[in-house]
Amino acid sequence: MTIHSWKFLSKLCITVVAFLPVSILASGMAVDPDRNLVYHSAASLDPAVIIQDVNDPSNPVQLSHITSTVHAKNISVDTTRDLLFVSLGDAGMQIVDVSDATAPQEVAYWSNKSWDVAVQDGIAYIARNDRYFDIVDVSDMNNIQLLERVTYFSFEGYYSTGIRTSTSEIDNNRLWIGGSTNDINVYEITSPGILNRIEVGINYGTSKNTKSIVFDGNTAVLTNGNLIIRDSVTGTANSRINRVSGAVIAAINGIAYTGSTQEFIMYDISDPSNIYELETVIRPTSGYPTGFGSMGEKLFIALSSNTGGAFQVFDVSQTIAPELIANVSAIVGGGNGGGITETVNLRPIANAGGDQAADSRKTVFLDGSNSYDPDGNIISFQWMQILGKTVTLSDANTATPTFKSPRIRRKKNGMRLVFQITVTDDRGATNYDLVNIFVYR
Q1: Backbone angles phi, psi at 192, to 5 degrees
Q2: Domain total for the chain?
Q3: Is the dihedral angle over the CA atoms 233, 238, 239, 240 positive or is it negative?
Q4: Does 194 reside within a domain?
Q5: Residue 335 contacts by C-beta under 8 Å, 6 or more apart in sequence?
Q6: Does 4 or 248 have the greater pLDDT score?
Q7: Which residue range(s) make up the domain with 202?
């Protein structure tokens, strides 16, 4: 284990007030639940951060905006001091006083690299998009100091050119620094700015940067091309799902929500050792997610497209059926309208019927008639055999095809056949289910 310390510690012990942990999930967005405020990147040619009042989540109100030199990479808020930290990549980091959300004021500027930042106890931990992360004293806006530049640890070596620190989050007094080619370094914050590394993660076959990290109790959820579940206390890995697109938006009550350009995918993470996909929600109008966050059972997404941008609010109180309750402009001065107009589309529910036992050389009836679409209609059925001795399906594009079961040879007692039904709804979303048919002599 590695201890990081520096010569300024005695000064910090005197000058730093005992701030509480305040780093809120941010990826182009920050959320202040105490003030019902959301900060997100504007979807426009002119770079800015918009401040939305979400006191009424179904009717967000654009209060003001903060002009930047370039578009924000990530945003974090220190709720104890009402300070917003806007990471601008290679251009540095703005620090903005947002105590008056209608009239934000820049109070300091950090000129070094900043691709993401987490703040606790007057200390900023900054991911730099290179093989380092910075520890910076931000307790005094008139005297910001670099305390230490820490090397991100990788099993490929400290100086691998592929290492890029991308994500910085704090939870339960632990600092999580994500990057590539390994997915995570986890440190215990033993005192302000003093770090004790407790875990180094493995990338599980992906060289992508960590896109996001969220926490649900003692469970940490990461995305980096895979969905990875870790213990939020020790940092150790529990399980993963490979080849997951998009970024994890939130983890609430044992459900993780990931988002990409056209969909939500929900995963059951209530048992961290056995995670699995629950449901997918299709968005027919795509947009590139530039920011996301959560507050209680509300999810926030900022989207950008070549036709504009939108700030959207989803109610996830019904776990696998997120409801779009607000869709307003994400353009500075855009007011409460415009942006990307879309209606959520739930995937249809495919039901191939219960497993069956059948005699050999008899007609077998498959039954997918209990398939349904929760928010529309199923317009097509398609059956196919995926396992076992090949049979011929009659009416394979209906809900109820048939086939003649194969003959069982004398030396065999039986065989298993597996069939898949794929259903498509009236807006193009699909889903599938499997059924086993056991054939006996």
Answers
A1: -50, 115
A2: 2
A3: positive
A4: yes
A5: 62, 328, 329
A6: 248
A7: 1-28+72-210
Q: Is 14 helix (H, G, I), strand (E, B) or coil?
A: helix
Q: Is there a domain that residue 393 lies in?
A: yes
Quote the pLDDT of residue 342: 54
pLDDT exceeding 70 applies to what percent of the chain?
Answer: 88
**CB-CB neighbours of 55 under 10 Å:** 11
Contact 96, 154 (CB under 8 A): no
| CATH code of the domain containing 382 | 2.60.40.10
Q: Which of 195, 210, 225 is the last residue of a domain?
A: 210
Q: What is the pTM of this model?
A: 0.75
Strand, coil or helix: 33: coil
The residue whose two tokens read 């594009």 is 397
Greatest distance between any 2 Cα atoms in the chain: 89
Q: Express each pLDDT in 408-420 by its tens digit.
A: 887 778 899 999 9
Contact yes or no for 174/187 (Cβ under 8 A): yes
Is there a domain that residue 260 lies in?
no
CATH value at residue 121 = 2.130.10.10
Alpha-carbon distances, residue 207 vs 203, 210, 226 (angstroms): 7, 9, 10
In whole numbers, what is the pLDDT of the chain averaged over residues? 85
Q: Tell me the C-alpha distance between 105 and 83, whole Å.
A: 10
- Considering only 33-42, 153-162, 173-182, 231-240, which range has the smallest mean pLDDT? 153-162
Name the DSSP class of 89: B
Among 149, 178, 210, the domain boundary falls at 210
Q: Identify whether 56 is part of a domain.
A: no
Q: Is the pLDDT of residue 242 over 80?
A: yes
Residue 409, judged by CB atoms within 10 A of its CB (0-12, 13-18, 19+), counts as exposed
Q: Strands of 174-180's sheet, edge to edge?
A: 3-4, 194-200, 185-191, 174-180, 164-171
Give tens-digit pLDDT for 168-224: 999 999 999 988 777 789 999 999 999 999 988 876 777 778 888 999 999 999 988
169 vs 189: CA distance, rounded Å? 12
